[in-house]
Write a structure and sequence with these properties.
Elements (H helix, E strand, L loop, with lengths): L1 E2 L14 E7 L12 H6 L4 H4 L8 H4 L3 E7 L4 E4 L9 H7 L11 E7 L2 E7 L5 H17 L12 H13 L1 H5 L2 E2 L5 H13 L5 E8 L2 E8 L10 H13 L19 E6 L5 H18 L2 H5 L14 E8 L5 H4 L2 E2 L11 H18 L8 E5 L3 E6 L3 E7 L5 H17 L1 H4 L6 E2 L27
Parallel strand pairs: 7-12, 9-16
Antiparallel strand pairs: 1-2, 2-10, 3-4, 3-6, 5-6, 8-9, 8-10, 11-15, 13-14, 14-15
Helix pairs in contact: 5-6, 6-9, 8-10
Organism: Sinocyclocheilus rhinocerous
InterPro entries: FUZ/MON1/HPS1_longin_1, FUZ/MON1/HPS1_longin_2, FUZ/MON1/HPS1_longin_3, Mon1
GO biological process, one term: vesicle-mediated transport
């Protein structure tokens, strides 16, 4: 039961939209039974928690690549990504954000005030002020989504914010404002959606499946209004709460993370008292999954690498379609291959994403937007934006501009060929309201009259 938007007050003009959500992980299969809940809990370590008691005056504390602070309007520290905010006084925080402890030629300092909160980012990365401000806005929205009460000073919410800041460093979806889908044959995805359609209850507005932090399938109640639509950023924040919150460790929601072969079911309702009705929906969905062995379709899915594509000299890419289908406008999606060996360490992965962020900022510059960027360095980089797609690609060194564009043309043909597998291209709707002449058992039948993805999304 979380607010997906801030409450209506002098700082926010959109009405509060409360929803309830029900999370469920399928019961363990014979393949999973050796994994006890205790083992799963051990996988939950968050990088930010390691530094919770770090000395804020130490050199190691200042060497972190990006600090984030949340303060009250009066300047009282409420949250610090590294170190204990209780050790920070207003005076210390002002000094720490100033020269010479954070030299201005090495760090970018960005402030964002939202209502009674002041958010601060002190970054030694190559990110622009606009990108850092966008990250602070995500932090603010995550705070609001947790029913934030300033009097509680974010007590107990540090893990969620630590997790969000960690995933923003390594997930390009935030930069692209898009969600990544799990590659899956369209027939399997359609079958999963059909199962979700059949298990409904009044005021249930969305049902979707997540695996490995990727969207698998999503269905929508067809009467949901346009202004209630979910955006990619809503999904990112919801995914983060699922991953990080210790509140999801009991009952049917016994673990807040999901290994690649496990699936998380999320049911969203506008009725905050609908938990038990949604639990019944979950039971029906789980029975259907078991009878059709449907979760094995997800477990057997094959992620792809650049070697599977057949494009010469390519090391990695990000592709966000713009006009492939109408749903890419309504729910922006992106695809990328698994990182090759050279980028599998956290440090190298973040370095590559920093290069992408730099190109993203330059190509979307408000003062001088570009269509194409070609750059040679440790890698050859190409950014290409047009009416049909947004592409960021990394090649081996010394690849010419002409060759890079030629290889990307091959890549685009491959993406078009694999589109049904890489993206959610069709999403059925359902109705939770009885119609004259129809029984309650008919309500879950597929409505395929609109094959665009979520007029609402």
């Amino acid at each position: 039961h979380v607010p997906l938007e801030p409450p209506l007050n002098q700082h926010c003009h959109r009405p509060r939209r409360l929803v309830s959500f029900h999370l469920a992980w399928p019961r363990q299969t014979s393949m999973d039974r050796k994994r006890t809940p205790w083992q799963v809990v051990l996988w939950m370590s968050q990088p930010g928690l390691t530094y919770r008691n770090e000395d804020i005056m130490s050199e190691s504390w200042r060497q972190h690549r990006k600090h984030v602070f949340v303060l009250s309007e009066a300047g009282k520290p409420i949250y610090s990504r590294y170190g204990n905010e209780e050790a920070l006084s207003s005076t210390k925080l002002i000094l720490l954000c100033s020269f010479p402890l954070f030299p201005s030629n090495e760090h970018t300092v960005v402030f964002l005030q939202k209502g009674p909160l002041v958010l601060v980012s002190v970054s030694a990365t190559r990110q622009s002020e606009q990108q850092l401000r966008s990250e602070l806005l995500h932090v603010y929205h995550q705070i609001v989504s947790m029913n934030f009460d300033l009097r509680r000073l974010l007590f107990g919410s540090e893990k969620v914010l630590d997790g969000l800041l960690g995933v923003m460093d390594s997930d390009p979806g935030f930069m692209l404002s898009a969600v990544q889908c799990l590659p899956l044959p369209s027939s399997s995805r359609d079958a999963l959606s059909h199962i979700l359609q059949k298990a409904i209850t009044p005021n249930l507005v969305f049902s979707f499946l997540i695996a490995n932090n990727r969207l698998v399938s999503i269905v929508q109640e067809k009467t949901v209004l346009e202004d209630a639509r979910l955006k990619p950023n809503d999904l990112h924040l919801l995914f983060n709460v699922i991953r990080a919150s210790s509140a999801f460790q009991a009952g049917e929601i016994w673990t807040p993370i999901y290994p690649p072969e496990c699936v998380c079911l999320v049911l969203l309702s506008t009725d905050k008292e609908a938990f038990y009705a949604m639990a019944e929906c979950n039971r029906k969905i789980e029975e259907a999954f078991a009878s059709q062995n449907a979760l094995q379709w997800v477990a057997n899915t094959q992620l792809y690498n650049v070697d599977d594509i057949g494009v010469a000299n390519l090391k990695h890419f990000l592709n966000k379609p713009s006009k492939v289908l109408d749903h890419h406008r309504k729910l922006p999606q992106f695809t990328c291959p698994e990182m090759e060996v050279a980028y599998r360490s956290q440090e190298e992965r973040i370095r590559l994403l920093d290069l992408y962020r730099n190109m993203h900022y330059r190509i979307h510059s408000t003062s001088r937007p570009l269509k194409l960027i070609y750059h040679q360095g440790e890698e050859t980089l190409l950014a290409w934006v047009c009416s049909k797609f947004e592409m960021y690609a990394c090649f081996i060194p010394l690849v010419t501009k002409k060759s890079a564009i030629s290889e990307l043309t091959k890549l685009l043909r491959w993406i078009k060929k694999e589109e049904e597998r890489l993206f959610i291209c069709h999403l059925p709707k359902y109705s939770t309201a009885l119609q004259p002449g129809r029984s309650s058992t008919d309500r879950g039948r597929s409505d395929t009259s609109n094959t665009g993805l979520l007029s609402l999304l």
